[in-house]
Structure formats: C-alpha cells, structure tokens
Amino acid sequence: MQEKEERNMSIWTRLGDEIEAFSRDIRDMRISPLVNLEEIRAELEQRYTFETPIPLDILTEQVIDLLRRWNTHVTHPRAFGYFNASVRQASIVADTLAALYNPQLAVWSGAPAAQELERVTLHYFARVLGMAPDTLHASFTTGGSEANLSAVLAALAHHFPQLDATGLFGLPKRPAIYITSESHHSFVKVARMTGLGTETLREVPVDSHFVMDTNALKTSIQADVEMGFYPLMIVGTAGTTSMGLVDPLPALADIALASNIWFHVDAAWGGSAILSPRLKPLLRGIEQADSITWDAHKWLSVPMGAGMFFCRHLEAIQRVFAVATPYITSTIDGVLDPYMTTPQWSRRTIGLKVFMALAEAGANGYSEIIEQQARMGDYLRSRLKQTGWEVVNQTELPVICFTHPSLKQGLFTTNELLQAMDKRGRAWISDVILEKKERALRACITSFKTNESDIECLLEELEYARQEVNG
Known about the structure:
By secondary structure, the chain is an alpha/beta fold. About 45% of the residues lie in helices and about 10% in strands. It has a domain at about 95-355: Type I PLP-dependent aspartate aminotransferase-like (Major domain) (Aspartate Aminotransferase, domain 2, 3-Layer(aba) Sandwich). It has 16 helices and eleven strands. The chain has a seven-stranded mixed sheet, sandwiched between helices. It has a four-stranded antiparallel sheet with strand order 8-9-11-10. The mean pLDDT is about 95.
C-alpha cells in the first residue's frame, strides 16, 4: 500500500516536472512530428492490447514520450500555421482542477462555484464588447462552431416563434443567410445540421479589400425579398481565417437594422482584439450585434476548447433550448440552468481555465499580451518586405499573407515550400487561397511567447526552403 502511494506521489511530481520542462524546452523542439500513419498505428496496436494492466507511472511516461515525439506542437512560439495559442500556466492548473473536481454544469445547484466563476468571466467580456450583461445570454461553448450554430438557431426562433413546434415544415418562407467567401466554413455545417440546407447561404461578393461588399449585400437582400425568400441573418466576420480582415461591421449593423435582419458577428479569433486599446477600433460596430462568437482558445492563451457565445435575445435562446424534465428540478429563483439555454446538457467547466488565466494576468496583462503579438506581426511584415517577400493582405491583426516573385512566376508552389520547411521542423506556417484564385503563404502569430528571434528563425527557414525548391 505504501509503495503504491509513493508511486502515485511520484506521478504528480513527474507531471509537474513535465509542465515546467515542456514549456522550457519547446523552443528547441521540432514543431511537426517525423512519423507516418503506418508507423504510429503499428507501434500503438502492438504496445496497447489492453489485455494486461500497465502501472500508471509507467503509462504516464509512455504517453509523455508519445505526445512529445508524435504531436504537432501548436503551442510552439514558431507555430504560425493555425490559430492555436500557447497556453498560460494558470489555464493548465484550471483544467487539472476541472478534471479533479469534475463539476457538472447542467444545473446551477450542481456546481455553484463553477457556475458563478463562469458567469463573472462572461459578464466581464460582455462589458468589454459593449453589451449589457444583465439582459444578455452568455455561455461557454465547445468552440466557435457550436456558438455559430446557436446563433442561427436563436435567429430562427426570434423571427419564427412557432418554429419550436412546427420545425422547418412550418416556415412561411425560405430563410437566407448572408456570408462571404472569407466567412468560416462552419456555416456550411450549420446549414446542414439545422436542416436549412446550403442553398440558404448567400455568398456576398467581397470588395477590393476582401471584406463584404455592402452594396452587393443590399442588392442580394433585395433580390431575395423579390423572390420570396426571408433574409434571416447577416454574418460579419471580425478576423477572417484566411487574411485576418474585419468586415465593415457598422455598415452591416445599419443594413441589418433597416431590414430587420439578425446581425451576427463571428469574432472567433479576432474578438480578442477588443482587449487591446490599439486594436479595439477595428471592431467598432460589434456592440450592435444580436449575437457574437468568440473563442478564448484561439487568442486568449487557454487550452482547447473554450468558445464563448453572447446573445441579446434571451427569449429566443429559451425558445430553442428550454425543456421540462421530471428528473431535474430547478430550485434557484432567477437562475436559468445551463441545460435550458445551451445545446449541451452534461457539461464540464469550460470557463474555469479562462477565468484563472484572466484573473492571473489581469485586464492590463491581457492587453499587453495581445499587443505584443500585434507588434510581432508588424515586425514580420517589415522583415518580409526587407528580404524580398511581398505582403498581400492589409490588416493590423497579426495574420500575414505573403508571396514571392519566384512563387508568382511559378518556379515553385506553396506546397513544395511548406514541405521543404517541414523537413527541419523549426518553423511552421500554412498556405491559403485568396478569393478562390491564387495561393499565398500565411503566418498567424497567436503565441505570447513569440519574439523577434522567432521571427528571424522563420525568415531563415523561408530562405532555406526557397533555395531548396529552386534547386
């Protein structure tokens, strides 16, 4: 018994050591793994037959080794490929405590502390967004896709109050949702999941700056009205995935108000800019939205998944999600249990890691974190131009799309360059298609650990890869 207790104690010591060591060592590690599908499957299937128990301390060492060797380290300060942030230690502690206490957030009475910690966090962010917390629905979600789904469902319930009973069969007109080619593709899934179908999605042209063309939007709305469709929702994006651009939110809000259309802002990544005095003006107009999506796990330095959903229309939320059950009794006056206001029923405390990261850093600390990454974006743009690359997007957010004269001449492809970079694994970027036409390279800076030396390393790797593919 004593030996088992000592081994268990050593596990927690080992985990603590790994948290410190991984954070310390990561800058010197490969970002992408050197492994193929056949290799990893063969080893795991041979090692783990689940017929013989493995002592936890040994198993822990094995899993640490596997995750170090065979994982794309998205928390690396030179992982510029996607919107995956480095994580703050406070949020790691929070996720550990969430697993330990395992609070069930279906009902308020089951986890008062966790519920109220989430509430105070969401209300802070609501005030930052310019929304009144006391009349607002706000909840943590698994991510932006769930939040965008919730927005469409709420818009349907708001405009078609009978929908909860009749379903889509009772709709008097076919709804229309206005997006652009730069909108997140989660709306394609949402159209399918809701049963609306992808023909509901109206792809509004973008202007010369790759943001929604407001004149084209007005034309599209008018055409739909004349054809008997029901303009349901305008989706403005604050921080597009491809180029980090922000749609003209004030103009979209005005059009939505004038035409009685639900205005949703998908700020899954760019929402965090609201915390920066320098970047906040980019999101002007977001305070007029009927609903907002914002992912904490994209730019607030917490582990996945931690989305947030804000909605002005609580009655619509209740119309979609509220149910009565004989096995759950709500006894707290003035409190709506989460299972009655979200798609989820059983739910872990998603927001604890956001609360602890925010409380530990403070509002000013978070502001500096965001602005430091924006400065690194500025630095990368400047250095790319100095070294012969061409920046092809215009944004103050730290998403940099760029190309090279040799790339434009067809001497190599973006895929060939990315493969050459991947051989050494020192820096990791991605590529995008701009307005469904030409490919460009893209670097997203979402790690608070990224510094100028990391940018210089990226430039070195770009030059190495360019020389490699040019022969």
